[in-house]
């Protein structure tokens, strides 16, 4: 039996007059994925950094939400282990995103800019007057070609 609830996308509810329905619909396609830190372009640079540092900066740079980690020698997934948890190359990172890292075209755009020597801005470098819940809910907008945190269209 095929479930249609798994076929939601970010356009769901965008015509609704209710803000909460538009926000919910925009983020309804997000799912939880996992990848080893050493194999990740989202998280690989945070080897040796705290979980909170990695989570904050990965969200700022890529719009992904790091929510947990599992040590190679441990069966338990640690959800939001805090600043005392230091990320290590063999750790498995659990994150929320619109697509898994391997399918993210955004990463390749970032690499092209890096290789050309162009400055790479984070998703939320500009000051924002949006409430925190709106900023969090809009994660992933960069990869979908939506609007930025100030409501401006993409280039």
Automatic annotation (TrEMBL):
InterPro entries: K_chnl_BK_asu, K_chnl_Slo-like. Residues 12-69 form the Calcium-activated potassium channel BK alpha subunit domain. One of its GO terms (molecular function) is intracellular sodium-activated potassium channel activity. Its main location: membrane. It is a multi-pass membrane protein. It comes from the Eukaryota. PANTHER family: CALCIUM-ACTIVATED POTASSIUM CHANNEL ALPHA CHAIN, POTASSIUM CHANNEL SUBFAMILY T MEMBER 1. This is Calcium-activated potassium channel BK alpha subunit domain-containing protein. It comes from Hucho hucho (huchen).
